[in-house]
Design goal:
alpha/beta; Rossmann fold; 2 domains; 6-stranded mixed sheet; 6-stranded parallel sheet; 12 strands; 36% helix; binds NADP nicotinamide-adenine-dinucleotide phosphate
Length: 279
């Protein structure tokens, strides 16, 4: 699509950035809604990230997404944080306001819950305890979103127990940390299991978790999306658990940024996942 001299500008900042699916996703929406705009990959080394973020208003950008490993730098650099980003300790969406100030938000948790609701319309957070595996950046977003959605209890398990304890202390609320050595006991009576670790990604071993104690009615969501069908999801499906893949989180987290920069609420359609993954 051709753009004019008045095109609205946004992008995604990360290091490296070549693997990012976001330009393809936002580019698809720009085309679909006939918007005079561009969304570009911005390869920015960590030591120059603060400088690059501060340059957004001068360059006429309406904002950008921020991805690994720059989310914490963005958190420290923006002028204002929304409540969600403050609690998550990381920024993945920056909006440049008319007065040139930068507001940082975090839409990963929103994307996670919207994806669950879209794929499993009968799911609701209040239904029972949620087990979250992992305690990295993605886990923070997922835990905050589950608590905000009304989960009565979040059971956190992580290979490094101390990191799970730290996350629970930082976020607060009804979070229970179960030791990694006896992690399977956390699955008893759970209504949701979420993998937020890197295990199961292409090139990584499967998540080492025996599902025997998990009720078959529990929804199993793996936020890893390469491959889409991870060993965890395959094992869950074999025993009858409903499953949710990770691509929906990626698609839905992009919606608030697109709406803020380009002025249109974009739709996540069934063929969008295929299109984004093909790229
Ligand atoms: N679908 C989406 O939109 C979306 C969004 C964000 C992230 N993600 C995916 O989520 C995953 C995690 O991202 P992140 O940013 O949170 O990464 P991160 O901050 O590096 O955290 C990695 C997590 O994986 C755990 N882990 C690593 N190796 C392990 C092993 N051998 N056994 C058990 N646990 C292990 C780590 O445990 P320790 O604390 O013990 O090291 C930690 O909890 C990635 O696959 C990423 O692609 C998906």
């Amino acid at each position: 699509m051709t753009i004019s001299g008045k095109a609205k500008l946004a992008g995604v900042m990360g290091w490296p950035i070549g693997h990012s699916r976001s330009p393809r996703l936002h580019g698809h929406w720009l085309e679909r809604y006939g918007i005079d705009g561009a969304y570009v990959p911005l390869a920015v080394a960590p030591e120059r990230a603060e400088q690059a973020i501060r340059a957004l208003p001068a360059l006429g950008f309406r904002g950008c997404n921020v991805t690994v490993p720059l989310k914490e730098i963005a958190f420290r650099t923006v002028d204002r944080l929304d409540d969600t980003a403050r609690r998550m300790g990381a920024v993945n969406t920056i909006v440049v306001h008319d007065d040139g100030t930068l507001e940082g938000g975090n839409t990963d948790g929103f994307g996670f819950v919207e994806s669950l609701k879209a794929d499993r319309p009968d799911w609701c957070a209040e239904r029972g305890p949620a087990v979250v595996v992992g305690a990295g950046g993605a886990a923070r977003a997922v835990v905050v979103a589950l608590l905000d959605a009304g989960a009565p209890e979040v059971r956190l398990i992580n290979r490094t127990d101390a990191r799970a304890e730290e996350l629970a202390t930082d976020i607060g609320g009804p979070i229970t940390v179960a030791p990694w050595v006896s992690r399977e006991t956390a699955l008893e009576g759970a209504a949701l299991l979420v993998n937020t670790t890197t295990q199961g990604m292409t090139g990584q071993p499967p998540l080492d978790l025996d599902l025997r104690a998990l009720p078959v009615a529990a929804v199993v969501n793996d936020i890893v999306y390469v491959p889409l069908d991870t060993p965890l999801l395959a094992a869950a499906r074999r025993r009858g658990n409903p499953v949710v893949t990770g691509i929906g989180m990626l698609l839905h987290q992009a919606r608030p940024g697109f709406a803020a920069w380009f002025g249109v609420e974009p739709e996540v359609t069934a063929d969008l996942a295929r299109f984004v993954l093909e790229g």
